[in-house]
Amino acid sequence: MDERKLQLFAPVILILTIITSISITIMLYLQKTNIIMIVLSCILSATLITLLIIFRLIHKVFFTNNIRKILSVVDNFKKGIFVQPSNEIKGNDLLSKMYGELLIASRHLDNIIKSQKNEIDKFRELYNNMMFSMNAYIMALDFNNKIIFTNELFLNKFQLSPSEVNGKNLSDIFYFLTGTVLQAIEEIKSTHESIILEKAHLISHNRISIIADIKLSFMISNNEPQIIMVMDDVTSKTKRDYQISLITRLSETIQKDDALDHILRTILTAVTSGTGLGFNRAMLFLRDDKNNILYGRMSVGPDTLDEAFSIWSSLNPLKGKEILSRGINGDDVHGRLLKEKVESTSFDLNEDTIFTQTLQSGETIHITDALHDQRVNDEIKNFIDVNEFVIVPLIALNKIIGILIADNKFNQMPITQDSVDLLTVFAYQAALSIETYNNLELLKKEMEKIRHRQEAIVESEKLAAIGRIASHIAHEIRNPLVTVGGYSRRILQTANAQQIDIQKIKKAAQIIMTETERLEKILANVMDFTRPSPFLLRFNNINEIIDDTASLLSNLFQERRVELSLQLQEVPLIKSDFNQMKQVMLNLLQNALDATPPYGIVEVKTYSDDKKVYIEVSDTGSGIVEEDIYRIFEPFYTTKTTGVGLGLAIVKKIISDHNGDIKVINKERGAVFTISIPLP
Amino acid sequence: MKKILIVEDEQHQRELYAMELQEEGYEVDQATNGKEAVDKVKANKYDCVILDIRMPEMDGIEALGKILSRDKKVPIIIYTAYSNYKSNFMTWTADAYITKSSNLKELKDKIKELVSTRS
């Protein structure tokens, strides 16, 4: 039945019923009634009322059902069920239409949800795959630092079971965490911003250590705030980088620094610097064969766990520079007790201990359980005071000069082969440095000795030279003085005897004059040598100088019947002082002439190469006596009967002033002087 | 008359000694270098030889040896401007070593002494 018709029908019946009721009432009032009319009216009213009641009932049944259906659809919606039963409501009324629309919307929603669920499923699968294949340790913490979740990789790495981890505090699992990790956790609690930490160091209570890049993110799960830590294990990469950087830095330091203490401290610091890479403590012992002991030379490492934490927290393991500069300063406040202990300890080299064994064999000894190891004697046990340590020999050029002892006293981490290898590298460097330093010291001492000896030789040579100079000057001056004095005396004698012979006096005076002039010449010569003369460097042709000098001496050569032969090649101009070079040629030619007997030859040659111009003066004299050949350029050294012995010394000085060189050799007959002057 | 050989390359000095010694009453012979001196000693007999050290051709020290090998007894006075050769052991074989001076008194005294002991 149509709802709209039903709705129209109801008021019509109602009005009819009311009209009927009113008509009955009026008729009764007018008393114009007959029984038939009343009966008819009553029947009519009763019929109408019955109809009304029936209609209400039909209406009620019909509507309630439809609304119930709609409500059930909505109920299903609430439950997330969108696919409805297929029994549709037929009809054109509003309820049916509404129901129809609801069903269409329901199908739409169902489709949307199905496709979204599909997407989510796919994403979840991808996510799971990613999580599973990710090589990272994952940990979720609540705001009380309690561990909510860790991935399997984490558990495997730290050798823990879920029950040992879940619900535990971070500090129950980790024995050491780089300070920045805890800071970051606190920070993220207030800011909720992700934080990335590089190369943080974590050590678990069961001594498993990692260096990781950590990403911390904030998340809310089940209405609870959480911190997710994704840790990317970079231990081995960092270790490698670190070792390389340390070794590089170390060799740089060693090359630059010659103070042994600095180098050794740098090495020991390097060995102990990385929190998870190196050792906690390192001790250097050197052998002293003179006293037959192995003595503590140096140590680096904290004295207490607190010190250890403060060192580790303040250092970034990859900043080698920082670490090494700390080492170089050497004013570390940490490890005073260890330093005192090590530097006051020595071991007898005669005793058979693991230390002396390492010294003899050159083998590394790794003690893992000192308490029960028969090889470790009580003295060493007490000294080291740690159960695991390693002894590495310092081998320098096949000589074992000491040992390096290292341990992990404070974090108790097992010593890995990696660490031992690193220690070996550093021990090698240390040994080389020590050996180099010792050799250098030895060399310095020897050099010092040689220098002293040289000084003594130079001193005695100087004295000898002064002696020679004095003797020559004395000789040269005494001769004319004797003559001058002698003749003066004679003049005086004749004057006293009053037998004045003018001729004799004249002759004596003449001699005195000559000898005085000679004295003056000697003085001038000496002064020439000592007085710095003005030096005028011009471009000169050396051949011109030689020609000039040769013509000056040509008469003298003729007189002595010595041939002067000039063989002058074209040579480049040289920067020289014309007059001084003339003096050189004059002295050399004069010497050559003096050395050459009559009918001999004095030869002058010039030639050049791309660097120098050469002048060669040779004679056919008797040459130079072997023992004199090194001394002929010395001032006041002479083999001639006259002259002060300055000629060749002056030559040498002038040539040196020209940055040149002069050499002399004996040839078959006579001597050859060769001058070389560099081209400008 | 005692005969003295003066061996000296410096002409003025040589002549001075000669004049002075002649005035002292000696017969004087002269040589200008060691070689000449050795030749003269070979040819003549002298009562004293006055020998300079630095001379051309042959120096006094070489001449000293040669003269002595020829005539072991002839007194030789080394008379030189060098004062440092006195310690040279070769000169020890001479009878005297006198450093030259413009005053010839020391030389004359020594000649007198040597010549008189010889006779």
What fraction strand of chain B?
A: 15-25%
The global form of chain A is elongated
* CATH class (first level) name of chain B: Alpha Beta
Main pleated-sheet profile of chain B: 5 strands, parallel
Low-confidence stretches of chain A: 317-330
Instruction: Bin the helical content of chain A.
Output: 55-70%
Instruction: Please compute the radius of gyration of chain A using only Cα atoms.
Output: 60 Å
Tell how many strands the DSSP assignment of chain A holds.
Answer: 19
Fold and architecture overview:
Chain A is α+β, with helices and mostly antiparallel strands and 680 residues long. Chain A is built from 19 helices and 19 strands. Chain A has helices at residues 3-30, 35-79, 94-133, 152-157, 162-165, 170-173, 179-191, 235-256, 260-273, 305-314, 320-329, 336-343, 354-361, 378-384, 417-497, 502-530, 542-559, 578-595, 647-657; strands spanning 136-142, 147-150, 174-177, 195-204, 209-221, 224-233, 281-288, 293-300, 346-348, 365-367, 389-396, 399-407, 538-540, 563-568, 574-576, 601-608, 612-618, 661-666, 671-678. The longest helix of chain A is centred in the C-terminal third of the chain and has 81 residues, at 417-497. The radius of gyration of chain A is 60 Å and the shape is elongated. Chain A starts with a helix and ends with a strand. Helix content of chain B is 45%, strand content 19%. Chain B has 5 helices and 5 strands. Chain B has helices at residues 11-24, 34-43, 60-70, 89-92, 105-118; strands at residues 3-7, 27-31, 48-51, 76-80, 96-99. The mean pLDDT of chain B is 88. Chain A binds chain B through residues 467, 471, 474-476, 478-479, 481-490, 511, 514-515, 641, and chain B through 9-10, 12-13, 16, 19-20, 54-56, 59, 80-84, 99-104.
